[in-house]
């Protein structure tokens, strides 16, 4: 490969997911003159969290596909479809296959290779009829298998797993969830909140196998059943949703520092290699509250990091403060979400906490659409600062968690939240005396002897 044969870019981005797209487009907004290129292996990029909803036709099969080709073209960003085989940091070059160009050079490189879904190391996990959820072809393959299935099994009771299981149920399949933890959503919620999710799943006909592991997928040429401990569940359709693993191959082979969770980056999203940055599900940074190494494979995190990297590669300065990981999902009638550290995770980190709890309604009770809300705020007992929250409600969970995440970032205390000012309108909010955040903060203050 010669330099003259390579296509050169001021900024080259590997990966067309949320982080890569955010980085490329934000860099363009900051500098209209930059020559920017983006290389991805997908024909179309997707809205990751929307994909399960195409399985029961809540949305169409095309609604989770982005029209980013148009957006990139409008932003004067060159798009290449291909697979990056290697990075040469010394010569600032890439080797690419399957693209109209096989060689690229760059001034600055942003790597956003994401993460790969994990298949469990059990017999039969690769049989036809077993699936993971990563990209559009995965959803299309699951949807095709659903046409001839009367039962589906999901291994994993996190957000994606439950959303797929609910799609199975809504599409008329008998739906099973296999989860090793005692409850579903156990990685993001305490057992008290997760029990409510479990009750809702069971009430709507989802068959949940909690505290049990999938031991084997049975079948010869296709899935026929799943062995769960001592039980065999006959099914032609299995979806694994047990988590993801950072895709660090390119940067690892290039010599970058790799941590427990992914590619190690500093606060500016720079890797250990010169002129190479990384964002999204492939990275390791730190937890905002504990300072310990951490990750956060969420599209929302990737977009924030992509913008941080874009500012820095275009001559500005912006820093990523660490992972707080606000997240939310919806089951049938209720939404569930958390941010920061819940009580269990705080205990694991050695942080003594005071919990504030409140129950209210999402609107004044007589108004149509009103439903219950339960909120738990987690405060550091020593500083009285908020470090986490959990919420279950018929509506408005994401908005409350976003506000509380801002409170975590700015180190608000229980007194700050107890004294917050708020809007009110009966068709949209509960009565002023039942504002959940204020009441939960006051509950914590009483427990701390401050009220």
Describe the SSE topology.
Layout: E1 7-14, H1 18-30, E2 36-40, H2 68-74, E3 77-81, E4 83-88, E5 93-97, E6 103-111, E7 115-117, E8 130-131, H3 136-146, E9 151-155, H4 159-170, E10 174-179, H5 191-203, E11 207-210, E12 214-219, E13 223-228, E14 231-234, E15 238-240, E16 244-246, H6 249-254, E17 263-264, E18 276-278, E19 283-286, E20 293-294, H7 299-313, E21 327-330, E22 335-340, H8 343-348, E23 353-361, E24 372-380, E25 386-393, H9 397-409, H10 414-418, H11 436-447
Helix pairs in contact: 1-7
Features:
FAD/NAD(P)-binding domain, Enolase-like, domain 1, 3 domains, 11 helices
What is the CATH homologous superfamily assignment of the largest domain?
FAD/NAD(P)-binding domain
CATH topology of the largest domain: FAD/NAD(P)-binding domain
User: Which CATH class of the largest domain is shown?
Assistant: Alpha Beta
Strand content: 25-35%
Task: Please provide the count of β strands.
Answer: 25
Characterize the biggest β-sheet.
Answer: 7 strands, mixed
Q: Name the structural class.
A: alpha/beta
CATH architecture assignment of the largest domain: 3-Layer(bba) Sandwich
* Secondary structure tally, helices: 11
Mean pLDDT: 95
Proportion of residues in helical segments: 25-40%
């Amino acid at each position: 490969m010669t330099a003259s044969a390579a296509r050169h870019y001021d900024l080259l981005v590997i990966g067309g997911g949320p982080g890569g797209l955010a980085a490329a487009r934000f860099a363009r907004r900051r500098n209209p003159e930059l020559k920017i290129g983006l290389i991805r292996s997908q024909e179309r990029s997707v809205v990751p969290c929307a994909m399960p909803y195409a399985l029961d036709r809540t949305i169409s099969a095309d609604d989770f596909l982005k029209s980013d080709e148009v957006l990139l073209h409008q932003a004067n960003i060159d798009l290449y479809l291909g697979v990056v085989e290697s990075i040469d940091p010394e010569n600032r070059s890439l080797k690419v296959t399957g693209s109209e160009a096989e060689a690229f050079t760059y001034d600055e490189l942003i790597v956003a290779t994401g993460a790969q879904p994990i298949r469990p190391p059990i017999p039969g996990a690769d049989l036809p009829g077993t699936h993971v959820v990563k990209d559009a072809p995965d959803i299309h393959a699951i949807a095709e298998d659903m046409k001839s299935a009367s039962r589906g099994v999901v291994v994993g009771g996190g957000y994606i797993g439950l959303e797929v299981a609910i799609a199975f149920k809504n599409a008329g399949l008998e739906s099973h969830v296999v989860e090793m933890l005692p409850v579903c959503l156990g990685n993001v919620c305490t057992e008290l909140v997760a029990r409510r999710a479990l009750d809702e799943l069971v009430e709507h006909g989802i068959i949940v196998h909690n505290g049990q592991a999938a031991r084997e997928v049975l079948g010869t040429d296709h899935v026929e059943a799943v062995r769960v401990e001592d039980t065999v569940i006959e099914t032609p359709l299995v979806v694994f949703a047990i988590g993801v693993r950072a895709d660090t191959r390119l940067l690892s082979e290039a010599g970058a520092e790799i941590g427990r969770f992914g590619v190690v980056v500093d606060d500016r999203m720079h890797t250990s290699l010169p002129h190479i940055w990384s964002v999204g599900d492939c990275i390791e940074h730190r937890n905002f509250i504990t300072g310990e190494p951490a990750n956060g494979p969420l599209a929302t995190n990737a977009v924030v990091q992509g913008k941080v990297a874009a500012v820095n590669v275009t001559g500005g300065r912006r820093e990523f403060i660490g992972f707080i990981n606000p997240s939310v999902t919806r089951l049938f009638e209720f939404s569930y979400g958390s941010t920061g550290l819940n009580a269990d995770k705080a205990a694991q980190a050695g942080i003594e906490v005071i919990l504030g709890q409140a129950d209210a309604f999402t609107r004044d009770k007589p108004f149509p659409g009103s439903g219950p809300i339960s909120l738990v705020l987690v405060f550091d007992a020593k500083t009285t600062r908020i470090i986490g929250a959990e919420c279950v409600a018929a509506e408005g969970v994401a908005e409350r968690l976003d506000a509380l995440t801002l409170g975590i970032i700015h180190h608000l205390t229980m007194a700050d939240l107890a004294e917050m000012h708020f809007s009110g309108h009966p068709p949209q909010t509960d009565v002023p005396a039942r504002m959940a955040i204020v009441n939960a903060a006051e509950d914590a203050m009483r427990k701390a002897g401050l009220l």
